């Protein structure tokens, strides 16, 4: 008799157990050209930290947070920034490639 193999769905939230891992995970997701990847990663992190606590700390309702971080959602910058701050994280901008752009010097 052939045994049927079943697999448990992968849950990234189970591995997001410290700030350094979370920062690396979000940074990698932000590198993707598809913004849905970052929103999904932010949802994984919020789930790992506890949606109710992140909702409270960000000033969002729990259901609003679930909706904002669900597949296909297009949350506003303010929402993403509030969630990041509730996680103790922030966006930073770094130069990764020089382009020949003429900018007037002051």
Summarize the structure in words.
With 106 residues, this protein is mostly helical. The protein is 50% helix and 0% strand. The chain has five helices and no strands.
List the helices and strands in order: HHHHH
By DSSP, the count of extended strands is 0
Mean pLDDT: 91
Helix share, percent: 40-55%
Q: Low-confidence runs (pLDDT<50, min 5 residues)? A: none
Largest sheet geometry = none
Strand content: under 5%
Secondary-structure-derived class = mainly alpha
What Rg do the Cα atoms give?
A: 18 Å
What's the domain count?
1
Shape: globular
The total of helices stands at 5
Instruction: Give the termini separation.
Output: 79 Å
Q: Summary?
A:
With about 110 residues, this protein is mainly alpha-helical. It is built from five helices and no strands.
SSE layout and pairings?
Blueprint: H1 19-31, H2 35-49, H3 51-58, H4 62-68, H5 77-86
Question: Key features?
Answer:
50% helix, 106 residues, mainly alpha
